[in-house]
Every structure is written in structure tokens, then in C-alpha cells.
Amino acid sequence: MDLNSYAELAVRLVNTAGGGGEDGDRLVNLDGLRALVADREHLNMGVTRNDLDALRALRAEFRAFFVACAGGDGEDAAAQLNALLIQHPVHPQLSGHDGQPWHVHYRESGSVADKYAAGATMGLAVRLTDLGIERFGVCQAPGCLGVFIDVSSSNTRRYCSDRCMNRANVSAFRARKRGEDEADTKAPGATVLPGAPVAGQDPALDERAWHGAEASAVHRASLRVVRVEPPAPLHAARRALDDEQVGPAGVTGQHDLAGADAAGAPDQ
Ligand SMILES: [Zn+2]
Ligand SMILES: [Zn+2]
């Protein structure tokens, strides 16, 4: 289980709620659910109505977690994630596949929804401890229910997608234009615009955030989000458990999914 890519599963699930308008809810039927897990081998082996219901409920819980993060409430965010970690456990397993030294894999079990929930929750916990809650945000585009994990160096990401960024820029431009037109009629020649310009965002910055290289995969033994100071002992533990250190080189963020030993399969 590559936990960074699993955190993206959480984002992907929340973002099926859509950005308003014609960009509506994409998780209303089994086809929507199949599309959600289509590229994940260990999840796309047959979905049910129960999976759909469970994941729609989980979507709301994940969004509440991102809202707590975006509000700067670390205690609330950690409490929500800890509750999810208890509800949706992963199972550490020793593995020595492909002649590698013994190392730990995290495995999910149960239904598609169970596996999705366990992987995504664990992924969020690891991402949270690596990046801090200020990197977890909610989309600022009007009407959008999307979220994101900001991996940009500037930590200035505001939108869940390029689509939302473009939409917001267009409406900000129109608002500015309206302001200008009003200024022209009321006070011709005025140089100060009455419409407050929306803070601009360099599209290149967001592009980097969206497509930026993910940090290398990290596995941790701890299943609870807690404040630790100093962090040294945790880092030592994670070093020893990190199977990516000895794993074959692969596509970043796809190790276990693309490799011969897909997480959660086939011994479930
Ligand atoms: Zn959005
Ligand atoms: Zn392995």
C-alpha cells in the first residue's frame, strides 16, 4: 500500500461531489462508483449498492475533516481522523516477497468500500503528519464542494482543480470588468477601481501544485494521529518499516498497485 497515493483516494472521493452547475455529483450510481475505482486493481473487482451508500457517507466525513483542517482546527481534524482510523483499520503484515528483506505492508480487507475507506484514511493520516494540516484545503470556487492537498512549495493553492481555478478567474475578471464599467459611468477618467479585485493566482503555481511530484512513499507504524515532540523516535520507526526503501524502483506513488504484490490482494 503506497500511502501517499491512498491519500489522493480520499481527495478523489470528496471531489466526486462536484463543482456546482453542470459539474454535478458524480457518485449517484454504480457507474459513478466504477469510474471512481477504475484505475485501482484491488478496488475495481465488483461494486455493490452497499459500497455506493457507504462511500457516499464516507465522502461527507472526509469533507468534514478537510473543513476542520482548512479552519485551522487541528484538534478537531485529528479527532475526526482518529475516529475514522478506528472504524476503518488497516492490518500490518510482514512480507518477504521477491527475495526482499522482511518488511511491513499495510493491507485492507472487506468490501470495496471497506478497503477504500481503510486505505484512504490511513493515507490521510500519513499525509497529515508529513505535511501539517495547513496543507489540507477546501476549494474556494463558488459552489464547489471539492478539496485538495497542497504540495506546492508556496502553499498558495486555493482550488480543487484547474477547472475551478479557471472558473473563479473568469468570474473575478467579470466582477472587475463590471466595477470598471461602473467607474466609467460614474466618474469618467477615475484611476481607482471600486470593485475589489480578487487576489490573483499565478496559473503556473497551481499547475505545479496539481502535477507536482509527490513526496516519496512513507509507511508508519502508528495508527493514531498525535502530536509528538521531538519526532525523532517516530522517524526511526518509520525508517525500519518503510518497504519502499527496499522495494523495486517503480512509478512514484504506484508501487504496490502496479507491482506484483498489489495491496489487499489476492489473499483476501
Ligand atoms: Zn473546486
Ligand atoms: Zn513490498
Jot down its keywords:
disordered C terminus; 2 domains; 46% helix; binds zinc ion; two-stranded antiparallel ribbon; 4 strands; two-stranded antiparallel sheet; Jann2411-like fold; mainly alpha
What does this molecule look like?
With 268 residues, this protein is mostly helical. It has two domains: 194 residues, Jann2411-like domain (Jann2411-like fold); 48 residues, no CATH class. It is 46% helix and 6% strand. A hairpin with a 7-residue loop joins strand 1 and strand 2. The longest helix is centred in the middle third of the chain and has 25 residues. The two termini are 14 Å apart.
How would you summarize the topology of this molecule?
Layout (H helix, E strand, L loop, with lengths): L2 H12 L15 H8 L11 H22 L3 H14 L3 E5 L7 E5 L4 H20 L4 E3 L8 E3 L12 H25 L16 H9 L20 H10 L13 H4 L10
Antiparallel strand pairs: 1-2, 3-4
Helix pairs in contact: 1-3, 1-5, 3-4, 3-5, 4-5
The structure holds zinc ion (2 copies).
